[in-house]
Specification:
alpha+beta, two-stranded antiparallel sheet, 47% helix, 6 strands, 6 helices, globular
Length: 189
Amino acid sequence: MGSGVSILRVDSAEERDFVRVGGTACGGGTFLGLARALTSATTFDEALELAATGDAKHADKLVSDIYGEEGCANLGLPGTLTASNFAKLGDMAPGWSCSEKDLARSLLQMVTQQSVLLASAFARHAGCIDRVFFVGGFVDEPNWMARERIAANFRGLGGCAYFLKHSDFLGALGSLKCALKVLEDGDGQ
């Protein structure tokens, strides 16, 4: 997960034994761009700092907001499930408020939920829901909130998410390896 999200299926440890199965433009770039538009944050770290103490349920419409707790129980849906990101902003009544911290948290949740939903669908189709790795700058170690939300959301869908140390450098390392291989084979100048 970086500016956007690519979802790869890796079939073995053999070189080039992978395929890109999907992705989304909703990633770290979306988080930062919208955080800058919706809050006072100007950097990724500032946006994360705001999100750390925000509460997404002040901006997001939950299933319980639509059906109530009894309706959720009858439908077999958790009331805390997000029904619509930022939907409460369209229903703002006089006196109701949503802080920029809440907006930042809602935004972080939107980006992580979309990635988890896509990754889980592809992983389920490939039969590997128990071993999905999330890598990239958006899920690097300092962004513990994204890792926490991804892990919890993925677990809720019956999967297991893994995160790698220094994951924000994996794309660059892969590109470097390919470039060195091209030079070694004499295919490049």
